[in-house]
Design brief:
The chain contains four helices and no strands. It is mainly alpha-helical.
Length: 132
């Protein structure tokens, strides 16, 4: 089965929207688990597509502050999930502010990654790459 390009490109966003709808409208454990699975699927699709479309392959191997690659790729999505949980379960203003800060960091990070991957940085002559 083939999806049209417009639907194919929107799949992660549709998964996130459906996950958010289920998460915020239902309170059963099964519904929250299902929304978590949908959200995880959206994150995996986003990361896989981003990696496949990456134009800066040599920069892909650089260490990101010595964080394992899997954690590095998923942390913006984790921050957004924490924000969603805070919005649903917390009423304290300072906790909501922390959640909003995490969400802003995550969105900024995703935008910067997208820009860096479609507009690769030109490497100068002084760049050296060390393998671990």
């Amino acid at each position: 089965m083939y999806l049209s390009k417009s639907l194919y490109e929107k799949t992660p966003f549709l998964y996130v929207a459906l996950a958010a709808y289920v998460f915020y409208t239902q309170n059963s454990f099964i519904a929250i688990f299902a929304s978590s699975i949908l959200y995880l699927a959206a994150a995996v699709i986003w990361i896989k597509r981003s990696d496949h479309r990456r134009k800066n392959r040599i920069l892909q191997t650089l260490n990101h502050f010595k964080i394992p690659q899997l954690i590095y790729e998923f942390y913006p999505f984790l921050f957004l999930a924490i924000f969603a949980a805070i919005i649903k379960y917390s009423q304290q203003a300072w906790v909501l502010a922390v959640g909003l800060l995490l969400a802003l960091i995550a969105i900024k990070n995703l935008i910067m990654r997208h820009q860096a991957r479609i507009n690769p940085v030109k490497l100068g002559k002084n760049f050296t790459h060390k393998s671990d």
